[in-house]
Amino acid sequence: MLIETEATPNPATLKFLPGRTVMDAGTRDFATPEEAEASPLAEALFNLGDVTGVFFGRDFISVTAAPGVEWTGLKPDVLAILLDHFSASMPLFRPGTAAGFSVPPEEALADNPEDADIVAQIKELIETRVRPAVANDGGDIVYRGFDKGKVYLQMQGACSGCPSSTATLKNGIEQLLKYYVPEVTEVRAV
Questions:
Q1: How far apart are CA 51 and CA 161, in angstroms?
Q2: CA 185 to CA 187: how far, in whole Å?
Q3: What residues contact residue 109 under an 8 Å CB cut-off, 6+ apart?
Q4: Which of 40, 53, 79, 181 is the most buried if burial means most Cβ atoms within 10 Å?
């Protein structure tokens, strides 16, 4: 099995492509070791000690190294864990039980029903134009709300904490949304 790697705009994050589907639907972001307990793979990556973030995309895994950690030393360990996991066809997530299960609340604004058409346009643009481009960089972007011209988005994976994410939001996403949806005045990260 060959696992390809790609650099991302975030120098702390590498994108690993196992050549197969990772997530059948959606994405999953693990920002702490506690969150990673839901996935044997994410937990194993955090257990390396030098990992501060794991993100599962449709066909990739993004791994973020701790500040000061060089990828030359960490990359072979990450590759070994990924190879073991995918070669053994292990499950991505642990089976859940109702005991102690909770879903963290999503940080989202309640959209004004009067803005339903605007929100639908924004969501469609994010889904068709923005998310595919952001996934190429090893991350994801999630709509969190629209209020008085301001669009609130959450960056995940390689995009979370990326030095160029502010430029991406302001120069890329904000300009795109303003062009197609004149009611948009600003885009903010949450």
A1: 14
A2: 7
A3: 144, 145, 146, 147, 152
A4: 53
The tokens describing 133, both together, are: 């481009």
Rounded distance between C-alpha atoms, residue 91 and residue 93, angstroms: 6
Cα–Cα nearest to 45, from 1, 6, 90, 95? 90
- Residue spans of the chain under pLDDT 50: 97-105
pLDDT at residue number 108: 60
Instruction: Specify the pTM.
Output: 0.70
- One-letter amino acid identity for 146? F
Residue in the block written with tokens 């390689």: 158
Q: Are 162 and 53 in contact (CB under 8 A)?
A: no
| pLDDT given for residue 107 in this prediction | 54
